[in-house]
Design goal:
Number of strands: 19
Strand order of the largest sheet: 5-6-10-8-9
CATH class of one domain: Alpha Beta
Strand content: 25-35%
Oligomer: single chain
Radius of gyration: 21 Å
Length: about 450
C-alpha cells in the first residue's frame, strides 16, 4: 500500500491518502474487505476531490482497462471501468461507432464518467452518458458482486449513475454505441452580441450531427456575453480517422505557476486576442480533427497552471428553459455590481431528466471559471443565492465550494438519494472528500 499526497485539479484539497492498485478481480475483493472506508480512483481528473479522502484508501483502477466484449451487429461494448475515454474511442471509431457523451480531457476514465454522469459537446442531442449505459458490474464490500441494469437491481443502477462512486467500485460497464457518419468536423464560427443573443441563436440550431456551444467575453458591461458560437458539424465526406493521431501524452496537471496570472487586465487581453483571432484571422469555416473538437483541453494544460498555487473554481449551472431570461438579467446585474474576474464563460444546451444528484435536466448549461480571491468568492456566494432562488442546479462534481445546505435547496432529490444510499449501505463504506462535504 502506497501513501501519497494528492491534490484535486482545482487545487481546493491537498491531503495524504493510501493507494492500492488492483490488477485482478480477487484483488478488488481483498483490498475492499480489508479496509473500513474506501473509494475508487480512475484518472483523478475531476476538478473536485471525488476519488479520495484524507487517510483513506483509494483503489487506483488504471490496470482495469480491458475490452471484454464487442458486438458490432448490436452496437454494444463491455469494457472495464479504468479504460481512458480516448482509448475507448480509438477502438470504437475504427468500427464507425462512438460514445458521444465525452468530457473534455482524454485521460478521464469510463468509470469516472459514469460516476459523474458526464455530458459532452453534443449534450443537446445526446444528453448524458446515462443514455448509453445498458448495465454495470460493481463490487461492494458488504453486498459483493452485483449486476446492475434497468432489469436487475434497478434502484442501485439508478443510484450508481451520477452517484460519485458511493455505491461501490464500478468494475465493468456495458455501453450502447452510436453510429458516427464521419470522424472529422467542419467548424463554423459566428459572432454574438450578447449572452441573450447567443441563447436565441442556439435555440434556432438544427442539432443533427451538429455540436453548438459558445465562448463569451466577460468584461464588457454594455455587451455582456458578447462572443462567438462554435458549430462543429460532422464531416460526412471524410470518414477515415487517423487513429495514430489519437494518442495523448500524460500531462502533469498538478503543476502550476507560482502566481495567479489571471486578473482583469490579462483576462481582457487574452479574451480580445482570442476573439480577434477567430473574427479577423481565422476562416469562418474550418476543417477540424476529432481530437481537437472532443478534447479541447488536451495540449492546453497551461490554462490551468495560470491560476497559480491557489487554483481555480468552476461554477457550472443548469438553468431550466423557462428561467433562462430572468437568470441572465439577474446574472448581468450581479456581474455589473460585483465585477468578478471571470476567466471563462460558455453556454450550451442540454437535454435530460433530473434524478437524484445528477447534473441533468432539459435546459441551458452555463459555465464560469474564476481564480480564487475574496472578490470572486463573494460573487459566487451571491450566485449561490440566485441558484437557490430559482432552483437552478449547480454542478457538484465541478465546484468544490458547494456545501450541503446549497445542494439540498437546489436538488429536489437530495434527501431521496441520501436515504436510498443509506438503505443500501448504512455504514457509508464508500466515502470521499466530496461526499463528506455535501453531507452524504
Amino acid at each position: 500500500m502506497l501513501k501519497k499526497k494528492i491534490i484535486s485539479l482545482d487545487r481546493s484539497t491537498n491531503v495524504d491518502i493510501f493507494i492500492k492498485r488492483p490488477d485482478k478481480y480477487r484483488e478488488i475483493e481483498n483490498f475492499s474487505l480489508n479496509t473500513d472506508n474506501l473509494i475508487t480512483m480512475g484518472g483523478c481528473n475531476s476538478y473536485t476531490p471525488a476519488s479520495f479522502k484524507r487517510n483513506n484508501l483509494s483503489l487506483l483502477f488504471t490496470k482495469f482497462d480491458r475490452i471484454i466484449n464487442f458486438d458490432k451487429m448490436n452496437k454494444t461494448i463491455t469494457v472495464e471501468a479504468g479504460i481512458k475515454l480516448s482509448n475507448l474511442l480509438n477502438f470504437t471509431l475504427k468500427e464507425n461507432l462512438w460514445l458521444p457523451q465525452i468530457p473534455g480531457y482524454p485521460s478521464i476514465t469510463l468509470g469516472g464518467a459514469v460516476a459523474a454522469n458526464t455530458h459532452g459537446k453534443s449534450s443537446d442531442t445526446h444528453g448524458t452518458i446515462r443514455n448509453q449505459i445498458k448495465s454495470i458490474l460493481i463490487f461492494h464490500k458488504t453486498h459483493g458482486w452485483m449486476n446492475l441494469s434497468d432489469k436487475e437491481n434497478k434502484s442501485i443502477f439508478d443510484l450508481t449513475i451520477g452517484g460519485f462512486g458511493l455505491t461501490g467500485t464500478i468494475v465493468n460497464v456495458e455501453l450502447e454505441l452510436i453510429e458516427i457518419t464521419g470522424c472529422n468536423f467542419t467548424t463554423t464560427v459566428e459572432k454574438v452580441t450578447s449572452a441573450k443573443d447567443a441563447i436565441e441563436k442556439l435555440n434556432k440550431r438544427d442539432l443533427t450531427n451538429l455540436f453548438s456551444y459558445t465562448w463569451n467575453k466577460t468584461y464588457n458591461k454594455k455587451r455582456f456575453g458578447e462572443g462567438l458560437i462554435f458549430n462543429n458539424k460532422i464531416n460526412e465526406n471524410e470518414k477515415n480517422l487517423p487513429i495514430d493521431k489519437m494518442q495523448f501524452k500524460n500531462k502533469n496537471l498538478d503543476r502550476h505557476f507560482a502566481l495567479n496570472l489571471w486578473n482583469k487586465f490579462s483576462i481582457k487581453f487574452f479574451q480580445n486576442l482570442y476573439y480577434n483571432y477567430f473574427t479577423i484571422y481565422k476562416n469562418k469555416n474550418n476543417n477540424d480533427n476529432f481530437e481537437n473538437v472532443l478534447f479541447p483541453y488536451a495540449g492546453k494544460e497551461s490554462y490551468f497552471r495560470m491560476y497559480g498555487k491557489k487554483g481555480f473554481i468552476e461554477s457550472q449551472l443548469l438553468v431550466p428553459l423557462n428561467k433562462v431570461d430572468i437568470f441572465l438579467d439577474e446574472l448581468e446585474h450581479l456581474v455589473n455590481t460585483h465585477e468578478p474576474d471571470i476567466v471563462l464563460f460558455s453556454i450550451k444546451k442540454i437535454v435530460g431528466k433530473e434524478l437524484f444528484l445528477r447534473f441533468e435536466n432539459t435546459g441551458v448549461c452555463f459555465t464560469f471559471d474564476f481564480s480564487k480571491n475574496k472578490k470572486n468568492l463573494n460573487f459566487l456566494d451571491k450566485l449561490d443565492i440566485l441558484c437557490i432562488k430559482y432552483r437552478l442546479k449547480p454542478s457538484i462534481i465541478k465546484d468544490s465550494r458547494l456545501d450541503s445546505s446549497t445542494i439540498k435547496k437546489c436538488y429536489n432529490d437530495f434527501e431521496n438519494f441520501k436515504k436510498d444510499l443509506s438503505d443500501f449501505d448504512n455504514k457509508n463504506i464508500y466515502r470521499s472528500e466530496l461526499s463528506d462535504r455535501i453531507g452524504i
